Amino acid sequence: MAETKPTATAASRSISSVQPKRSRNSISWLAPLICIILGYVIWRYAIGSPSNFTQPDLNGGFWPDHQGPKSNLARMYEGGIIVPILIGALLCVVTFVIERLVTVSRASGTGNIAEFVRTVQYNLANKDVDKAIAACDKQKGSVGNVMKAGLRKYKEMITNTELTTEQKVLNIQKEVEEATALELPMLEKNLVFLSTIASVATLMGLLGTVIGMIRSFASLAETGGSDASIHLSQGISEALYNTALGIGTSAIAIIMYNVFTTKIDAITYGIDESGFTLTQSFASNYK
Length: 287
Fold this sequence. Notes:
Layout: H1 10-13, H2 27-47, E1 53-55, E2 67-69, H3 72-77, H4 82-108, H5 113-125, H6 129-139, H7 142-158, H8 165-188, H9 191-223, H10 228-285
Antiparallel strand pairs: 1-2
C-alpha cells in the first residue's frame, strides 16, 4: 500500500517575518485627566483671578463667588463649574489633534504614496525585488512597512521549490494581511476621543447653559424690582458662554476627526493597492 504524506499548507511551510509592535498608549488615560485639571486651573486662577473683578471673593476657596467682571473673558468665569470641564475638553482636543498629526504624518511616509506604489510595480516588473525593498526603506510610512513585509515574503517565495504558485501567492497575501493588521490600529488609535468629545462637548455646553438659566431665574425670583431685568440679562449672557464653548470645541473636534479619517483612508487605500500589486506581480512573473 502506497504511503501517503500529508500535504503541507502555505501557512505551515513558512514563518511570518512580521513582528508585533510594542506601543504604549498612556496618553489615552493621562491626557483627559491632566487636561481637566489644567482646565480648572485656567478657570480658577487665570480667568477667575481677583484682579478681573470689581468685587472679588477672596475667601471663596474652590469656587469663589466673584462679582463685577471687568471683561468678557472674566464673564466666562461666572458661567459655572461646567466651564472648566469644557476648557479641559478643548485642551483634550488640542492634545489629541497634535498626537494624531504626528502619528499620521509618520504613517504617510515621505513622498507621494501613489508614486511609491508605481515605483515598486516597475521594479517588480523588472524582477528587481531588492530595488523595490530599497524604495520601501526610503518611503518609511505604513504603506512602505506593509509593502516591505510582503516583499520579503515575495523574495522568499521566489526561491521556494516546495510550494505551488497558488500557495506562494497565498503566503504573500497572508504576510501582507498580518502587516496590515499591525499598522491599522496605530492609525486609528485615539480617534475615538475626538469623536466622543465632538458629541459630548455640545451636550455639556447645553447642560451648563441650563444650569446657568436655572440660577438666573432663581436669582430673578429672589431679587425682583427694577434690577431684575439687569440680573436676568447678565445671567443669560453668562450661561450662553457654556453653549459657545461647547459648540466651538465640538466643531474643532468634528473637523479634525474628518481630516484624520480622510488621511487614514488614503493610507489604507495605498496598503490595499500594495497587497494587490504584490500578489498580481508574483502570479504573472513566477508561474
